[in-house]
Amino acid sequence: MNISVPHTARLLGAGLRALLVLTLVTGVLYPLLITGLAQGLFPGRANGSKTEANGRVVGSALIGQSYNLPLKEGQQTPEPDLKWFQGRPQNGLGANSVNTQYDLILSGATNRSADNAELVQWVRDAKAAVIRDNSVGGYTVKPSDVPADAVTSSGSGLDPDISPAYADLQVHRIAERNGLPVGHVHHLVDEHTEGRTLGFLGEPRVNVLELNIALERLVTEH
Q: How far is Cα of residue 176 from the mean position of the Cα atoms in its chain?
């Protein structure tokens, strides 16, 4: 079959025009439309769910943070700052990964089975630490009191929320470390406990960043 040069040129021209139109529609107009709708309807979420305190952005409500003490000389692993509510374990990709402190270089799970010896040891160590850190004068944490999210990381390793049970478990320590009445701290947790989405999706949860911001205000006012 002989194809003439003018016919070939027409086909190439039609293809080029289609490419330009589709590029304009899908690469420019559609993103602008969606961005405009998002900014108009959900500006906070569209901009990363930024959380502010004292007039400055301190994090995102969607990403967990560390609450640790500064590293001491020769220390490689920071200790938790126990005057703050602590989030879930931060070794979502393993103890030697790049994401051990909520760093946003990578996100992922351990990919270890439930009977993996290393994972089992992580859970045991985390449980012992939770019991030790949260057992204060007049209040002793029992092994059966420790909820699953206190000793396991989330699938992403970046979960910003904890269960109400884990938040309640930390109340006595928080009260003692900050010189606050236990009842006031319990009330703070209750105020920041969110129910299931739409009443039936997910589980009740407490955002650790927002809870600690409220805790800081309570300490300042007390």
A: 26
